[in-house]
Amino acid sequence: MPNPTYRGRFAPSPTGPLHLGSAFTALASWLLARQAGGQWLIRIEDLDPPREVAGASAAQLHALQRLGLVSDLPVLRQSQRHHRYQAALDRLLASGKAFACHCSRSDLADSGGVHRHCLAKRQRATPAIRFRVADDDVIVLHDAIQGDYRQSLAEVGGDFVLRRADGLWAYQLAVVVDDAAQGITDIVRGCDLLDSTPRQIALQRALDLPTPQYAHVPVLLGADGQKLSKSARSDGIDSGDPVDVLNRLWALLGQSAHASIGATDVQAWLAEAVAAFRPAALPHSAGIAFDSIPA
Ligand code: GLU
Question: Pairing with 138, which of 58, 120, 222, 264 sits 20 to 30 Å away (CA)?
Answer without folding.
Answer: 120
